[in-house]
Design goal:
This protein has 126 residues and is mainly beta. It is built from one helix and six strands, in the order αββββββ. The N and C termini lie far apart (106 Å).
Length: 126
């Protein structure tokens, strides 16, 4: 048994863990969907990756949940203003990356400016 462990250890020496990389908007308005993207994450050995996303922090009162949290491109509805911190860990089925985090600031949507109606002017007669 000890011999097998040593062999396995030698095989894993020099093997690097995958790298989790996140792209996300830094700021959005409340009520917006936020698309996260980890497609730049990579495995040095070229193995396929699995994705594990989670919320580290959400604003008080938020019911945000991740949609497709086990894919490279999950999303969530930024339902209330505040700070959302998300974490990603990727795995190549042998090794796991260190956690990578991203922060998305959500603000109150600005009011919609409505134009005042253009008054109808009487037609000119010549």
């Amino acid at each position: 048994m000890l011999h097998r462990f040593r062999c396995a250890h030698r095989v894993l020496r020099g093997v690097k863990a995958p790298l989790a990389q996140i792209a996300a908007p830094a700021a959005v308005n409340a009520g917006s969907y936020v698309l996260l993207n980890a497609s730049a994450s990579q495995d040095p050995q070229g193995r396929p990756l699995t994705y594990a996303w989670s919320f580290v922090e959400r604003p008080l009162g938020s019911n945000a949940t991740l949609v497709d949290e086990h894919t490279a491109t999950p999303s969530f509805l930024a339902d209330v203003p505040g700070t959302y911190v998300l974490q990603l860990i990727v795995s190549n089925s042998v090794l796991t990356s260190t956690a990578s985090q991203v922060t998305v600031q959500v603000s109150t949507a600005p009011p919609i400016r409505r134009r005042s109606p253009v008054p109808c002017l009487p037609a000119r007669t010549h």
